[in-house]
Amino acid sequence: MELHKRKFFSLLPVIASILFFFLKISIKTSQTKCSLLPHNHYWISSKRIVTPDGVISGAVEIKDGKVFSIVKEEDWHGYIRQGQIVDFGEAVVMPGLIDVHAHLDDPGRDEWEGFPSGTRAAAAGGITTLIDMPLNSEPSTVSEETLNLKIKAAKNRIYVDVGFWGGLVPDNALNATALERLLRAGALGLKSFMCPSGINDFPMTNITHIKEGLSILAKFQRPLLVHAEVQEDDLVKDNKNDAQLYSTYLETRPPSMEEGAIRNLLTISENTRVGGPSEGAHLHIVHLSDARSSLDLLKKAKSRGDSISIETCPHYLAFSADEIPDGDTRFKCAPPIRDAENKEKLWDALRNGDIDMLSSDHSPTLPELKLLQVGDFLKAWGGISSLQYVLPATWTSGRSYGVTLEQIASWWSEKPAKLASQHLKGSIAVGNYADIVAWEPESEFHLDENHPSHIKHPSISAYMGRKLSGKVLATFVRGNLVYKEGKHAPGACGNRLLAK
Ligand SMILES: *[C@@H]1O[C@H](CO)[C@@H](O)[C@H](O)[C@H]1NC(C)=O
Ligand SMILES: *[C@@H]1O[C@H](CO)[C@@H](O)[C@H](O)[C@H]1NC(C)=O
Ligand SMILES: [Zn+2]
Fold it and tell me: Which residue of 278, 348, 397, 476 is most buried, as measured by CB atoms within 10 A?
């Protein structure tokens, strides 16, 4: 007995070193699977690092997936001793983009996109986090059970971090138990429509539903995202004009549809004020297109203290109605892309802070549903495919307006992180996750069928055929180099972001 024990103890160091050996191997394989870099302590250096304190020349120290230190070039003499340096030279190093509005259509419609292709496209486009919309998947995410289906579908299939919005629909809006279960299961907030969504199991809400939804959201301190258009009359059925003309589509979705919805919404938005009955909840207007009356109303509500934020999308900033060719339904989305003067006003509003942030509203479908042979704007699927291209799209049109790198980082990272309650994301700051994109603003490329696109149906993108400026070199998610110059890390190591 004694002898056996002694033998065991004398073998302990051997056993320990064998265990340690396997541990090291398993750490190493998980790293090489998740990252194109073999180490988890290293530096990223560049002449242009976008930080909350301005653009600096220097280096960011990454350790165990987080930003460990940030050093200016003039201070780093003798400082960087150990670890590897990934030098991006003159390229811009910026917080990874956070896309708070993407439809990945998984589970159930992954022939439209799906988690794997969508998140690989995101990584190739510099997006390190995206929040998936509760509709266009099958079923819609409107309950604890359907959210669990999403969470399961994303397991080991995502290449960047993904969170989930839940749906506010008539079926759950007046049932506190149902909403609380959905929010407890991890939905980062809720989304609702004030007009038909086009998806059968995602019906529109009225103002009573929205008010009740806000009162539950207040307890959880989470936002309600609203598609703000109302349908007053059936303008599609009543319109007899040529459906191949973009102007015909515009007539069916005038700015008054946005304005009407926002007027209605503002009758209850004061509930979100400090001291109001739904303090802690927040209203977020998705994809604002009307930069006239709708925007004016929202500005007033914001200035009186209602908790409201506004997003718009690159396609409203890059295109205007007059340049959309007849029958080219790739440009169909709702609300629609409006006139050139409206576009100028959107840029003004974004630059002066009235519009808070950008999102892709990547909303793909099958080419046969998007590009109906007859080019029919009234029948084609509404939604712009853009996920991988939003950074160059924003930059290409923004450059002529004097947009700065800090503004891009604010609209695409800092503000979206706040909306989605991702407190350790949204900026390159010590303690935050090392979610980073390195890109070359000056590099131009022609987006055509030869371009390595990772979305499932690049041919239906409105950006296809354009010359764009801004090439993504590398994308890091929690310190893992998930994408570099055309190559992805093999592992789908993205995290599912569930609210707690
Ligand atoms: C409310 O939702 C809960 C949980 O989803 C469900 O069990 C219950 O039947 C619903 N109540 C009503 C009145 O629909
Ligand atoms: C909204 O719909 C609910 C039924 O789901 C109804 O009880 C309520 O009165 C409606 N509110 C308005 C303002 O129409
Ligand atoms: Zn959408």
Answer: 476
Residue nearest ligand 2's atom 14 by CA? 206
* 54: three-class secondary structure by DSSP: strand
Report which bound ligand comes closest to the CA of 178.
1
Which CATH number applies to 96-426? 3.20.20.140
3-state DSSP assignment of residue 123: helix
Q: Tell me the C-alpha distance between 273 and 271, whole Å.
A: 6
Query: Could you tell me the CA-to-CA distances from 304 to 32, 223, 271, 433 in Å, in that order?
Result: 52, 19, 12, 35
- Per residue of the chain (500 residues), give pLDDT as tens: 444 555 655 665 665 665 555 555 555 555 579 999 998 999 999 999 999 999 999 999 999 999 999 999 988 776 666 669 999 999 999 999 999 999 999 999 999 999 999 999 999 999 999 999 999 999 999 999 999 999 999 999 999 999 999 999 999 999 999 999 999 999 999 999 999 999 999 999 999 999 999 999 999 999 999 999 998 777 777 788 889 999 999 999 999 999 999 999 999 999 999 999 999 999 999 999 999 999 999 999 999 999 999 999 999 999 999 999 999 999 999 999 999 999 999 999 999 999 999 999 999 999 889 877 679 999 999 999 999 999 999 999 999 999 999 999 999 999 999 999 999 999 999 999 999 999 999 999 999 999 999 999 999 999 999 999 999 999 999 999 999 999 999 999 999 999 99
Token pair 């909840």: residue = 281
User: Cα(363) to centroid of ligand 3, in Å?
Assistant: 6
DSSP letter (8 states) at residue 292: T
**Which residues sit with Cβ closer than 5 angstroms to ligand 3, an ion?**
361
The residue type at 482: V
Ligand nearest the Cα atom of residue 144 = 1
Q: Is 208 in the pocket of ligand 2 (CB under 6 A)?
A: yes
- Minimum CA distance residue for ligand 2 atom 7: 208
* Model pTM above 0.85: yes
User: Which atom of ligand 2 is nearest the CA belonging to 208?
Assistant: 11
Measuring from each residue's beta carbon to the nearest atom of ligand 1, which residues come in under 6 Å? 175, 177-178, 181
Q: Which ligand is nearest to the CA of 229?
A: 3
Could you tell me the two tokens for 89?
């030279």
